[in-house]
């Protein structure tokens, strides 16, 4: 490989602040990734890594999908950037129309941003202003689920507050009412009773409820029954608050449906999308809002304009990437394919269900998670897979696979087999005495 790469590790340690990465891991030296192709990443030493988590769940078509790259290159020859304040451009219009075609009967308006947390922040502000301009300013509370994660901006942190990570910011984060989450169908009724008890003191005060539909990603790919999602939606209708579906991680077919909320047969008021929206090529997110909410922000007869935006909202390059990605998802029927492959993966993982190191095996679409009995065991599995150049990042005791939706069947089976073998070997070799830091 190019000799210029030899200086990068030193410069990286000197100047780059890596997200979610302890200093000790940086000092030990990180792989330098210089290329990507399909489900593979290539490092500066020419070694190929299988990207088993689609680079934080975003590269749903693998790396450098030719149709998406061609769309970006063509757009670059016409227009690189244009603000959406008092202007518009074809790429933003076409992407909004593509999203509308798959969202809430098409009667929606789309507000663009650059990342998932920004999409959630917009949803929070839209809901609060919506109620305030309708004379219900007392509706300021938010409802979220235990273990929720909705981003790292301050309002989003309030919805998914974790003492271990967020204690310095507590005074800046409005707290949410937190609801229990069932793991099994027979727990839905008791969780709903507990939820209603927690909500009883806030009748008429709730602006919105926000959920990660069906699967709580950062909580460890915690999958819960569709019946609970439907029950929470019914409660929002009774309460008169807005229902927000955070589909940053689960959208575009990941769970076997275009949107995860479809498993419950509901239709949220606001939908947040990101990550796979551009197939991971460029930063873009969307807050998709029902027209009846959007129309309340008119400036006639009073000015209710939503004074909120981002410099790169609807950037033309990112927007055409989104249009191209959606076309591939549609043409290749990737949500349906994810549902079918998910069944195959769960069958391949079945031998782990009675393994002494395993607490549970779960999955939905092309999300496959194995929860071990300790984070140390998960780190041992990670170390084994990294030695085989398979990129995984455990979430506490949970090791998971979230590969591209268009992955070849044989490659998926190989990846699942390597995960299964690494876990089965735990009983023979035990946990590492000095586990790899994540």
State the CATH class of the largest domain: Alpha Beta
Strand fraction band?
Answer: 15-25%
What is the global morphology? globular
Poorly predicted runs are 430-438
Category by helix and strand content: alpha/beta
Rg over alpha carbons:
22 Å
| CATH topology type of the largest domain | Aspartate Aminotransferase, domain 2
Helix fraction, binned, reads 25-40%
How do the strands line up in the largest sheet?
Answer: 4-12-11-10-7-5-6
Let me know the largest β-sheet. 7 strands, mixed
CATH homologous group name of the largest domain: Type I PLP-dependent aspartate aminotransferase-like (Major domain)
| Corresponding CATH architecture of the largest domain | 3-Layer(aba) Sandwich
Q: Note the quaternary state here.
A: single chain
End-to-end separation: 27 Å
Q: Mean pLDDT, as a whole number?
A: 95
Number of helices: 16
Count the domains: 2
How many strand units?
16
Quickly describe the structure.
With 438 residues, this protein is an alpha/beta fold. It has helices at 8-15, 23-28, 54-57, 66-76, 90-101, 116-132, 154-159, 163-166, 188-199, 226-239, 291-294, 316-331, 334-349, 375-387, 409-424, 426-429; strands spanning 33-37, 40-43, 48-51, 108-113, 141-145, 177-179, 206-211, 215-216, 222-223, 242-246, 270-273, 285-290, 358-364, 367-372, 390-391, 398-401.
